[in-house]
């Protein structure tokens, strides 16, 4: 069993819940002491593989590249296994672009009922480097048990929605989804409903 270390398998650049994460599986027959090193290249600078300091000699089989990668450029990453003096060949992911390929997570709703108003705002699990993209959210309000939903669309991420409840009585539910516009509109799934008694 000398002299050969197989490269990591299933190297995938995943865009999940506002983050870009590289994942991989150990190569066949990897020794227990194996570590991994990750690099990436962008389409702006092909053949220039950039180092990722926090994913050098890591024992993990994933690497969060969210704020390492440029946001508006297609990038790919590669990973190699290292064990003692042995190094595997690099294994590469496909190209992805954070902005176009990102998968959105539903926002977390904060609901506050005061006198005749419901105040709703949404928080997003955003990394600092993508705070500036104008994420929005869409909000639905409906009476529990009814399919008749009132929609509030395209609310800027940091804005609070105030809903007049003077005419509403009973159990009302709210749910929201993240959205943002690139070529078309992109949406997350709707969040779990939050219900309040009015």
UniProtKB/TrEMBL annotation:
Gene3D superfamilies (UniProt xref): Immunoglobulins
Entry-linked PROSITE patterns: FN3 (PS50853)
Recorded superkingdom: Eukaryota
Fibronectin type-III domain location: 7-103
InterPro entries in the cross-refs: FN3_dom, FN3_sf, Ig-like_fold, Interferon/interleukin_rcp_dom, Type-II_Cytokine-TF_Rcpt
GO molecular function: cytokine receptor activity
Record keywords: Receptor
Keyword Endoplasmic reticulum found: no
CC terms in the record's Gene Ontology section: plasma membrane
Pfam families linked: Interfer-bind, Tissue_fac
PANTHER family assigned: INTERFERON LAMBDA RECEPTOR 1, INTERFERON/INTERLEUKIN RECEPTOR
Protein's recorded name: Interferon lambda receptor 1
Species of origin: Nestor notabilis (Kea)
